[in-house]
Design brief:
This protein is of the alpha+beta class. It has two domains: 44-204, outer membrane lipoprotein receptor (LolB), chain A; 224-384, Phosphorylase Kinase, domain 1. Helix content is 25%, strand content 33%. It contains eight helices and 18 strands. The chain has helices at 4-8, 12-39, 43-55, 110-117, 122-128, 224-235, 298-314, 372-380, and strands at residues 60-65, 70-78, 81-89, 106-109, 129-139, 145-153, 162-168, 174-180, 186-194, 240-242, 250-259, 277-285, 290-297, 332-336, 339-345, 350-357, 360-366, 382-384. Strands 4-3-2-1-9-8-7-6-5 form a nine-stranded antiparallel β-sheet. A seven-stranded antiparallel β-sheet has the order 11-12-13-17-16-15-14, with helices on both faces. A hairpin with a 5-residue loop joins strand 8 (174-180) and strand 9. The longest helix is centred in the first third of the chain and has 28 residues, at 12-39. It is globular, with a radius of gyration of 27 Å. The N and C termini lie far apart (115 Å).
Length: 392
């Protein structure tokens, strides 16, 4: 007599074979994972990132995106001089004005090129960040097959702060780097858009007549006091620097600029009657996260803030929705130590300002890569930068 059990229940021997085969599959998968963990070596990925950060990009078109700007350019080695790279503008793409912009092909040293991409020495990054996720297969938006690995802070709780690095599966070269704030927002990106240089032929560049780009940018990282003393003499304004920095942060560089901005109540700039606003910017970093300190006389800082606010209102939304919103018009006042700090913040950045520093205004710009308390600690204690003693 047939029963339901007779029709659907496998013999014990058959069930045993099936269970045994499934167990073998599980054991094989576990051994594969264990073997990967035991044999995985992060050095090739770390070495590949170090090569990119120190030697610069490979030949092709690259795009860099920072908090306020997007730049595109072609890069290629300078024929006959491996210590330099050529940079050429991309037709139809208008880069923001500045030291790192060329209207025609020109040559850079490799350290100067990496200032186009990132703003801190690679040695700081590897000192303060560690790989937390081994490379895994991934695919970029353009369909390029890659491996992606992730680095995070060693010395502090970075929240969602991390650097994601994509390596081409075939060549091993870095093809994209993205840095994220502690809230998980994109802060900066460098990515390779193509492997060729379009209609531009690097071999047509005449190194004897071609311009040298970024001649006013530092080609090496100079000591802090050496830079500050030189800038203080040029700017003829008192300079101050932070006493307390977060763990791992070091001085990177200082810049002095004279910026012509409209006078209060006007919209036009008269080059003959509008005096330039003088501002000194100090940059500190742990290799990825950045802290910018701005120093100017209070009326000039007011003019710079008004001009910047207008520029942000006029700037269109980025095509990938990463544009920062306009900062709140009214700052929040925060008492700290024996002073009051004015704060304005949004999803992208935190801006702190003090107006009680010897007739000067000091601002701090952070990209939300640190906590508010960490930013407040930096701007709370400032010291005057004195000239270096002359050699006897």
């Amino acid at each position: 007599m047939s029963t339901e059990r007779d029709h659907h229940e496998q013999p014990a021997a058959t069930r045993g074979h099936a269970l045994g085969f499934g167990a073998l599959l599980l054991v094989a998968a576990a051994l594969t994972v264990l073997l990967y963990v035991l044999t995985w070596n992060p050095q090739p990925s770390t070495a590949g990132l170090a090569t990119f950060l120190e030697r610069g990009p490979t030949t092709g078109m690259w795009e860099t995106r920072r908090l306020y700007s997007v730049r595109r350019a072609y890069f290629a080695p300078l024929p006959g001089d491996p210590s330099r790279l050529l940079m050429a503008p991309v037709p139809g793409h208008e880069n923001p004005a500045g030291c790192q912009t060329c209207d025609e092909p020109c040559s850079y040293t490799r350290p100067q090129v990496m200032q186009f991409f990132f703003e801190a020495p690679s040695r700081l990054f590897f000192r303060n960040y560690r790989m937390i996720k081994a490379p895994v297969p991934a695919e970029l938006l353009d369909g390029r097959k890659a491996y992606v690995a992730v680095w995070a802070p060693r010395l502090r709780d970075g929240g969602l702060s991390e650097r994601e690095v994509w390596f081409d599966q075939t060549t091993g070269e870095v093809v994209q780097v993205e840095d994220y704030s502690r809230t998980g927002r994109l802060v900066r990106r460098a990515r390779k858009l193509s492997d060729d240089t379009g209609d531009w032929d690097p071999n047509d560049f005449d190194r004897r007549k071609g311009p040298v780009c970024c001649a006013d940018c530092p080609s090496e990282w100079l000591p802090e006091m050496e830079q500050l003393a030189s800038i203080a003499e040029e700017a003829e304004i008192p300079l101050y620097r932070p006493v307390d920095l977060p763990p791992g942060f070091r001085f990177v560089r200082a810049d002095y600029r004279e910026v012509t901005v409209p006078a209060m109540g006007t919209a036009d700039i008269d080059d003959d009657t509008t005096p330039p606003a003088r501002i000194v910017t100090l940059l500190y970093s742990d290799g990825m996260a950045l802290i910018s300190i701005g120093i100017a006389r209070t009326p000039e800082m007011d003019a710079l803030e008004r001009s910047y606010a207008e520029m942000r209102r006029e700037r269109p939304e980025d095509d990938d929705g990463q544009a920062c919103p306009t900062l709140p018009a009214e700052p929040k006042r925060i008492p700290i130590r024996d002073t009051t700090v004015r704060m304005r913040t949004d999803d992208c950045r935190t801006v702190l300002r003090r107006d009680d520093v010897g007739g000067m205004s000091v601002t701090l710009l952070g990209r939300n890569e640190l906590t508010l308390d960490e930013y407040l600690a930096v701007i709370a204690r400032l010291e005057r930068v004195l000239p270096l003693p002359e050699d006897e």
